[in-house]
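Re: the 709-residue chain
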Amino acid sequence: MRLRAGFYLCLFAVFCGIGCRKPITPADNNQAPETWITSAPQDTITVKDKDGHPIVPSPGTIPVLYHLYWAGSDIDGAIAGYYYALVETAATAPPGFPLPGLPGPKPRDYHFTTHTDMTFIFTVTEAAPDRQHAFFIYAVDNKGKPDPTPARFIFNSQDRYPPAIDTLDARATSPIFCQSGPGAPVTACSFVKMITDSFDLHSQTLKDTVPSSSVLNFHWHSSPTLPGSPVTGYQYKLDETQFVPVDSSVHSVTYNSGITDPITGHVDVLAPGPKQFTLRALDLAGGARQTTRRFLLNISPITWLSGPDPNAYPYTHRGGEIYLDLPDFAHVPNLTGSLLSNDSVQVLPSQRPERRTFFEIYKNRIYVRGENDTVNFNSWVVVGSGGFDPDTPYLVKAGVPGDGQTKPDTSGIPPGSAVVLHSGPANGSPIGFKGSGLLPSLSLTFGSSQNTDPALLYPNFDPNSTQRLTIVSGYFQADRAGKAYCYTKAVDGYVKSQLGSTDDGISSPFAAKQLADKVDAGGGTDQEKDIRRRIITFYIDKVPYLVTSDPTFTPKYDGSTVYPSRTLNVNLFASDVDPYTSDVTSKPTRVGGPSTNLILRWTLSFAGKDSTNQNVVFAPDFLKHLTSDNSGRLIVTNIVLDPRIIGPAVTLKIELCDCIDCEIRAGSGRCVNVSIPFMVPPPPTPAQTFHSDHPGPGSSNALSGRDLP
């Protein structure tokens, strides 16, 4: 019993032990597959050496069209397929940040394939033909087990063969006006031009110019340069802020047609100025090849001088001058043949004849001046201009219709004849002018150059304009002594255009001086000689002069004076027809008249021969920069002549200026140099010197000289 009880106890223990054991999991004997990239064969775009053998590309860079091979193995089964993913860097970097690195693949990036090779076209961008990519691939076996360590290939894809743009034809067509020369009839004609200028980093000058009204047609054709990567589309822009994308079937676009879009209501009209049409041809990888056409939309107007006709009005012709005396400027006659007549509003700028003359207004006299004449200091210089503009609407600044303050009084001329003040379509004329001048230093003028910026358009009768300027001719104040290079610039109806609205044949006042001097010296091209005609040169400030007819003038100008001794007295007399000073105490109260006081400065010296017949100049400091009073008379007594000058022939050298501090204040006046011969006795011997009389005191009304130290 006891044995049987033990047996049952053991059997019960066995059953209890079996009931408490965990179930046994079957062993996983399926091993994961392995994956690797077997690289790529050479293809049609592989670079080859001189013997025709392919050169393996740099491991880091491959073409955008590339054939990749891969493989997998499974030691205890079979490969059912592959999952691959392709990632790339961002197309562009955020502003102010570097380009981010390659992202890792996301589950949605993976694609399944049973193939072991595939041809890929890796994407780039139209702005950047290089882009970094990463290719990931892992194998899956027949039991669905993946390779836990995918193969990876990081590379830079380069689009070296974007589509070729075979042609880009740019054509401008427009009706314009033509003119054979200044003042000739304006006729209608046609304009057709092929635009060929493309962007050049080394040349910013626009070589092609077309009328502002041109219809612009751009036509193109392109072809792929890489087999398997066709042209997929185009992008273009002219004035658009963003490129306009179109598909590969579009090969042309038209601008500036003037046609209204029936949907948007937009009128196809371009603003004038510099333009650049850009075209991109895109391939399957997103790469692009770009070409451009640059041009200026708006033909610049041209300018010529149209001054008064000296023979059209009964001017006074006297002493080589042509002028008209006026009792007052409230009753100026109608100066026929000039823009101080009804011609100013009745004759369009294109119909004004070319005349290289101008008016000068000084005191109560109007002068007719020409090239290289001299005008009075502080006079008004009035320059009339003509011009031609072939392509711009005549948008004259005439103000609000019906406002009597916007235009000059035209009641004395036939109704409708004031065509200069009537805006309308293009008529071959510019709408106005801007004036400029340059006053450089001269051999007889102390000081440096001065520029006058051609800032304001005239005429401008618009009362709402802050730059209203109700003149038809250019008015310049001649308040700087020197040689003036004066010119005007015609301005067309697109006055606010960045380029093309102004005649810029002369780029600056200094350029005007350089060009005029070059041509006047016998140089210059034909074009420079033509532009030279737009510049008129003249002198400002009539130099002071000696009044040698005065009976007390000593020494006599004719050289007849013989001094009895070598102690000299001079009695000089001078005047100036146009005295002027900018000093506030004596400055003229208006432009067109002289200062109230006479401004004269004298410097005296004596020249002769020494005992060896060499030239000697006696120029003591007390004879430099002497000023005379308003009478214009200078008296200096008791000047002891330098004994080195043995005589008997001596020359008094006079520098006479109409400015006090000429060297300091640029352009404040001009100087003239005069020489007067006279005779003196020879210097005394030493014994004579010992017994000589000392000079007496000078006159109380004159400057007195002194002995040599």
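The chain has a mean pLDDT of 84.
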